[in-house]
Amino acid sequence: RSDKVDVLTYYMDPKLRTYQLSNTQLYSNTPSDFDFKLLCHSEPFDSPEALVEHLKTSVDIVFPMVHGEWGEDGRIQELLELEEIPFVGSSAATCKKAFHKFNACQEIGA
To answer: Any idea where the D-alanine--D-alanine ligase N-terminal domain is (predicted)?
Structure first.
């Protein structure tokens, strides 16, 4: 057992292409050129499922910090749950219920 902690960073673009970022990539980009630099210097995972396969052998726990539909509607959580990859945050079912705010309000009676 190692006491070493490595933080692996991934970026998912609006087209759901996911890239593993090195620390150099992470710190050398600005919001305005981020996608451009990634497209020129990195290869994305073939699919969200390919990312999950990679995570199964690369991480002990996932901290999903994905804004927008894919990250908030439960789909990424569902993939992690199906492969039994531990993650921090709400379950896929809870994310699905909370994603549509009107339905979530009806669910809790607000």
So the answer is: 3-90
Reduced to 3 states, what is the DSSP secondary structure of residue 55? helix
Give CA–CA dist 89/99, Å, rounded: 14
Model pTM?
0.77
The answer, yes or no, to whether residue 106 has pLDDT greater than 80, is yes
Alpha helices by DSSP H, listed for 1-110, are 23-28, 34-41, 48-58, 69-72, 75-82, 92-99, 101-108
Do residues 95 and 72 lie in contact, with contact meaning Cβ atoms separated by under 8 Å? yes
Which stretch of 9-18, 31-40, 61-70 has the lowest confidence by average pLDDT?
A: 31-40
Measure Cα distances from 8 to 28, 33, 91 in Å.
Answer: 16, 21, 22
Judge whether 1 lies within some domain.
no
Distance CA(37)–CA(18), nearest Å, equals 14
Total domains in the fold of the chain: 1
